[in-house]
Amino acid sequence: xxxxxxxxxxxxxxxxxxxxxxxxxxxxxxxxxxxxxxxxxxxxxxxxxxxxxxxxxxxxxxxxxxxxxxxxxxxxxxxxxxxxxxxxxxxxxxxxxxxxxxxxxxxxxxxxxxxxxxxxxxxxxxxxxxxxxxxxxxxxxxxxxxxxxxxxxxxxxxxxxxxxxxxxxxxxxxxxxxxxxxxxxxxxxxxxxxxxxxxxxxxxxxxxxxxxxxxxxxxxxxxxxxxxxxxxxxxxxxxxxxxxxxxxxxxxxxxxxxxxxxxxxxxxxxxxxxxxxxxxxxxxxxxxxxxxxxxxxxxxxxxxxxxxxx
Length: 310
Fold this sequence. Notes:
This protein is an alpha/beta fold. The protein has helices spanning about 10-20, 55-60, 80-105, 140-150, 150-155, 175-185, 205-215, 235-245, 255-260, 265-270, 280-285, 295-300, and strands at about 1-5, 25-30, 45-50, 55, 65-70, 110-115, 160-165, 170, 200, 200-205, 220-225, 230-235.
């Protein structure tokens, strides 16, 4: 298979590229500069200009599928108006530009997997969100709605489109977990706020596995929750991470302190109570390799060293 990927230099993009190459597939990375000859066998480059709605159709020729992962990272910090505009522009306008370019190709790919997020559902509280659930409120929910709607040109052109509503991707290589590890290794980890809020998550190995699965299932279209079968409370996640590292986690972070440190990121990510299930993915037949938080963290993290003299 010949697969084009945007955001190929990100954590998920790198892992997906490596997985595809390992199985003998060709990867075309879409870049925002003049393409160069890749030093990696099986990798090619094609130029795309998201805001202008242009893509190098010749270099992209023969690709059966596109995995669209590019976008400005959310990340902690103050969500100023400027930063919100940047996030929205990169994800909504970028997706719209890409889809218009794909729709304009004479021989376009037939499959598009476009990134989105479980934040589409907002705070769900005691309700477990499936793909049939309504959209929530707030900046991230609105962003995900616009993000998914931006694929309309590709859908109207006849492409098979699935929206990857991903939970928090757990990996040692980056993302939330990498940010937490230094604190936990120093014994400074702890629950956030009350710890009762739920985290909808997925391991990197299952994120890549689910994307690979969906590349082979063009019949699965529309929203697909990419998350582990069971969300976990922040308190249980804290205990599991501390156990996996062999370190204590007794320093709670009260909500006011989190607000000061993380700004707008707090309300809709760090403290939001969001529970989602991968109903459509499981019904389609995907089997999770790391379905629970303990097995995931055990696989992701190195085993803690035994105590001296043990």
